[in-house]
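Morning. Coffee machine broken again, so started the prediction first thing and wrote up yesterday's gels while waiting. Chain of 116 residues, entered below exactly as on the submission form.
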Amino acid sequence: MKYIIAIIQPYRLADVQAELYKEEVNLMTVSEVVGHGRQKGVTEIYRSYRESGNLLRKIRIEIAVNDDFVDRAVKAIMRGARSGESGEIGDGKIFVLPLERVYRIRTGETGGIAIG
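Came back before lunch.
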């Protein structure tokens, strides 16, 4: 089991979700976060509001998957989050972490079955 964390541009969320759904990855948690990478200090326009400074709005997607879905999920995120053919600075990052245990609270199921 793996835990996938992706940090993407807010305007790419719908595309990432569509790509994940195509790969039958339907369970995810989405959060609005702020942060910066190499593009710190760049002025960005978000929802008609001009933001300047070193913290930019991003979307954090968290997904727990069984091992046979890791590559499919990562490739789907990359397809949906990449700007244009070759991508752009700020398109985001994907982190894949080992997932030691998972519990479904309602039933008490554990492991891959609890993921869904």
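The chain has a mean pLDDT of 90. Going to sketch it on the whiteboard this afternoon.
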